[in-house]
Amino acid sequence: MADxxxxxxxxxxxxxxxxxxxxxxxxRNAVRMGEVQGQGYIAQALDIxxxxxxxxxxxxxxxxxxxxxxxxxxxxxxxxxxxxALYAAMIEAGILPEDELETYGCDDSRLPMSGMAQYTPxxxxxxxxxxxxxxxxxxxxxxxxxxxSDSFVYTLFSDGELDEGSxxxxxxxxAHHRLDNLIAIxxxxxxxxxxxxxxxxxxxxxxxxLEAFGWFVQRVDGNDxxxxxxxxxxxxxxxxxxxxxIVADTLLGKGVPFLEAREKNHFIRVDAHEWALALEALxxxxxT
Length: 288
Ligand SMILES: Cc1ncc(C[n+]2csc(CCOP(=O)(O)OP(=O)(O)O)c2C)c(N)n1
Ligand SMILES: [Mg+2]
Description:
The chain is α/β, with parallel strands linked by helices. The protein has eleven helices and seven strands. The chain has a single domain, classed as Rossmann fold (3-Layer(aba) Sandwich). Helix 2 packs across helix 4.
């Protein structure tokens, strides 16, 4: 199990920032990337920043300077349109250089709008077609076990992906294979392209369903850093040989009140003058 003393996490140990600082910088990086395109999946990046802060600065074992290091924990982004959030976290982690955020979504950039493994260091899978990341994670877990690895596979997916049958097949397969090296996080922001997810295709009661499939399930406020950190810790040390799911309830646009309040916030357009206001709002909300 990695910890801050094992020499594998120089960025975390040297910078001495709190998780709240990390989450702030992830949100800031995402807003700056959003400004490059003037629009995008900004509200999702803001809602998932706390989960990514805990994943990259508390839970996961990796080497920023060597993203392909065999002993790393894997992070599979199933909802490829959340790439803006993952780039923001990987920039903060030192896996990607900060000045590259100015290329987000541009021709020839290593940071395309949907996650692409062949372009981006640290990106473990290509996204775009939703509903497949959990199944890929199941395969990676089986492969790592076969190799005798103690690495965890983390995968993030979204509540809209619960509409996909392939997700439920993977949920069943992970339990069947007793994949205790799998930690899945589902972002319940109750939004998808066609409106609130529970109104498009209701997945509740989600905890009970996942437990019935044989998973260890925790449901937390995904914007409460302490709760998220405790959930990741519990997922890692849980004794039963079963896969682990963190159901994270989040708020779209979290940290920027005028984006939290924006009505249609799956893919938002932000006026030119609002980007600076968004950064100001993040700054104003620090440590509150
Ligand atoms: C298989 C598949 N179907 C449809 C889409 C188009 N699509 C892109 S994002 C999205 C919404 C998915 O829901 P979710 O990720 O929960 O939305 P968000 O929380 O980002 O608003 C859809 C339907 C896709 N990328 N892949
Ligand atoms: Mg959603």
